[in-house]
Write a structure and sequence with these properties.
By secondary structure, the chain is mainly α. The protein has helices at residues 2-26, 38-77, 82-91, 98-107, 109-125, 127-132, 145-167.
């Protein structure tokens, strides 16, 4: 029995040593007694962890606002508003997030220009116009304009047939 209590005390002091070491390592750069005195250090480190956690979330919000601002500026250069650009891309099934759109607007302006044209055509003239007006810079699964128009006409005919069946 005596050996168990001694082993327990040794183990407890060892845990205390490593726990304090972690806290003091986090507080190495603190000024004054906040880096030396454990009772002050633990409070300062916990407060620093709170700021660190809050800062990570604030950084994400800040970057999102920065991306939106840059996309908005690039869209205005192309003559399209930000909301028109985003809604047109969503309707055209272009799956690019704001970070990628921002990167394209900076490093690939021609690609961004073609995306803006697609979105503008989708919003202004509807589905058939966005299919028939394929900007030269964008690769599409349709290889020629003729195939593109034929596919659009087939879709319209299928839509008319479905509407006629629904009426009868």
């Amino acid at each position: 029995m005596v050996f168990l209590t001694v082993a327990r005390q040794i183990r407890k002091s060892s845990d205390r040593y490593w726990r304090k070491k972690i806290i003091f390592d986090e507080a190495k750069h603190f000024f004054g007694r906040h880096s030396n005195c454990y009772s002050l250090t633990i409070r300062a480190v916990h407060r620093a962890w709170v700021y660190k956690n809050r800062g990570r979330h604030l950084m994400k919000n800040y970057l999102r606002r920065l991306w939106i601002t840059r996309i908005q500026a690039a869209a205005e250069e192309q003559g399209v508003s930000y909301s028109t650009l985003v809604s047109g891309l969503i309707q055209s099934d272009v799956a690019l997030n704001r970070k990628m759109l921002e990167q394209l607007s900076i490093f690939e302006p021609k690609t961004f220009q073609s995306l803006a044209q697609i979105a503008h055509a989708r919003i202004e003239e509807g589905v058939l116009a966005s299919l028939s007006k394929n900007p030269d810079q964008v690769l599409n699964k349709f290889t020629t304009q003729q195939e593109l128009l034929e596919a659009g006409l087939r879709n319209l005919q299928l839509g008319e047939k479905a509407g006629a069946q629904a009426k009868s």
